[in-house]
Structure formats: C-alpha cells, structure tokens
Amino acid sequence: MTVLRPRGFLLDAGALRSAEADPRGDVWDLCRQEHIAGRQPLLPIMVLAQIWRGGPRQAGMARVVNSCEVVGLDGTMARRIGKLLGQSGTSDVVDAMVVLAAMDAGATVVTSDPGDIAKIADSVGARIPLFTV
After folding, report:
1. Partners of residue 12 on adjacent β-strands
2. Residue 33 near residue 61 (C-beta atoms within 8 A)
3. Contact indicator for 112, 10 with CB cutoff of 8 Å
4. Which of 94, 100, 107, 119 is least surrounded by CB atoms within 10 angstroms?
5. Contact 26, 111 (CB under 8 A)
6. Is 86 helix (H, G, I), strand (E, B) or coil?
7. Tell me: the pLDDT tens digits for 17-48?
C-alpha cells in the first residue's frame, strides 16, 4: 500500500466552488499558505474545465485559479485515467485525474466530497490525504 506524504495542496471542483461561495475563506487561506511555503496549489485542468463559467460571480474563484499551477492532460495521463477508472469501477474522469495528480505530486486533495476521491484511491491502494471544505 502506498502512503503519501503531503507536499502541498491540490484543488478539486468542490474547493473551487467553496472559493466562489467564500472568496476569503478556507481555500484562499490554503492558497496563501502554499505561497508562503514557496509552492503553488495544484489545479488539474479537467477540474478547471468542469467548474469554470466566467463572469463576475466567479471573481473569487478566478483569484484562486490564478494562484495555481495547472496540471495538464496528455495522452499518457488520459490512458492512466482510463486504466484507473477500470480498476476502481467508477466513471468520473475528473475525480480520477485528481487522484492521479495528487499521487504524482504527493499532495493533499482539498475537496468537498472526500468519499469519491477516497474510493478511487483505495482501489489502487493509495492513501491520499484529504482536506474537506
């Protein structure tokens, strides 16, 4: 079983929704902590695509997004996502990318739905630290 050591934060869609609802709340505080530590929070590109709608209502979210390092998607990652979905018996492409990006970085996932992330991670024996917002 893989046990990951937290090396920073990775944001999922729930974290961005939290930032939208409370622009000066927990998610922004975590982003500031990352910058103080000399890191940027990680944001999988699929999470951004899933949640971004633009406009003034998302100004707080935009501030958080602009503070992040975006984790890209290529053919190799796409195949890894597909394989993980098969192993976990799930179908959420975005959650699978969150799990893989967190595993790769050794990051803590900031989420509003720890159950889905944990289920996918558990299917491959990975222990990903979770921070619920």
Report:
1. none
2. no
3. no
4. 119
5. no
6. helix
7. 999 999 889 999 999 999 998 999 999 999 99
